[in-house]
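Aggregate trends can hide what the representation actually does to any particular protein. For completeness, the protein is quoted in full, as a sequence line and a line of structure tokens.
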Amino acid sequence: MNRLPFLRLVSLTSPGIRVRINGVQKEVREEAKRKFMEFLERKDLRITNQRRVIIDTVFDTDEHFTAEQLLDWSRERDSSISRATVYRTLPLLTESNLVHEMDFGKPYKFYDPNYSDSPNHNHLICEDCEKIVEFDSEKIEEIEQEIGHNLGFTVKSQNLQLSATCNALKRSGACDNKPCN
């Protein structure tokens, strides 16, 4: 992949590929788990074993996910996880601002567990294989600051979403990120 000096790849999400995090980022994720537990306590909500598994699953991945993916991954850890508990926990995660719900024009939403680490980041979404590439760009940050300054505003946040098509699919007629139907 040709890297541009002003672009930093943050994460890559592909269906069927899960990225486990480690190192310094793990400390950040543990802090996010702790904050979410405190959020639940403030709302007087129980922290059940099922909810704990779901929380661990969310904050143990660096990947964007759908509700159904979260259900599958959580059930890999504990087969008793119910769909209802996953669907009741997701709005709480987004309400806590530790996970961000994203609409990429699909009939389902994606959830971003990296949101609390870096609320200002950008996504490139492949329309063919649904691969999500998360990236930061110094040039985009410079442009947003310039636009804000020129219009008399201080930019608080930004979100750029690029839709793309898969070059691998065009070249070979198949894509490693999309299972054959």
Q: What stands out?
A: The chain has six helices and six strands. The two ends are 28 Å apart (CA to CA).
